[in-house]
Write a structure and sequence with these properties.
Low-confidence stretches: none
Order of helices and strands: HH
Helix content: over 70%
Shape: flat
Distance between the termini: 106 Å
Structural class: mainly alpha
């Protein structure tokens, strides 16, 4: 008995739906893997471009200083050489000093944070015994487990922190 055309179309549709769902799952995995690869390539390209920019800046700074020192060699162009040196050197030194002061401030901030954490740890460990002694004193007072004249030693007085 041959299947009817409606049954065969139904089977074809189910097969198509199943294959589409499998393909979508596979493509999702491929997209995730490719996105990581594309992201890694984009980061590598960014690093390459940043390095190229830094090298280009270093080249132009070297050429600028070379030109300034060549102009210093001649008496008639010394004024321009000093002018060129001060135009670039002062802002660069100002930026460099700012970076150094920022790094020093960052180190000081990290040191203060570390000391704060250390002091907190010391206080919490030290206060632990103080708090436990105070709680023990409160328990002794309110439970009335020790009274004046008991012979644990000679209890003469009960304070908040310890019996005397």
């Amino acid at each position: 008995m041959l299947p009817s055309s409606a049954q065969s179309f139904g089977r074809i549709r189910r097969i198509r739906r199943r294959t589409l769902s499998v393909v979508r799952r596979c493509l999702r995995d491929v997209e995730e893997a490719t996105a990581k690869s594309v992201q890694a390539e984009a980061i590598a390209a960014l690093i390459r471009n940043a390095l190229s920019f830094v090298l280009l800046v270093i080249f132009f700074l070297g050429f600028y200083y070379y030109l300034s020192f060549v102009l210093l060699a001649f008496a008639k162009t010394r004024y321009f050489a000093h002018l060129l040196l001060t135009y670039l050197t002062e802002p660069v030194l100002l930026i460099f000093r700012g970076i150094i002061s920022y790094v020093l401030n960052l180190i000081m901030l990290a040191l203060i944070a570390w000391l704060t954490i250390l002091v907190r740890a010391m206080l919490s460990l030290g206060a632990n015994s103080v708090v436990s002694n105070m709680l023990a004193g409160l328990f002794v007072i309110y439970r009335r487990s020790i009274s004046i004249g008991d012979h644990i030693g000679d209890v003469a007085q009960i304070k908040l922190r310890e019996p005397i």
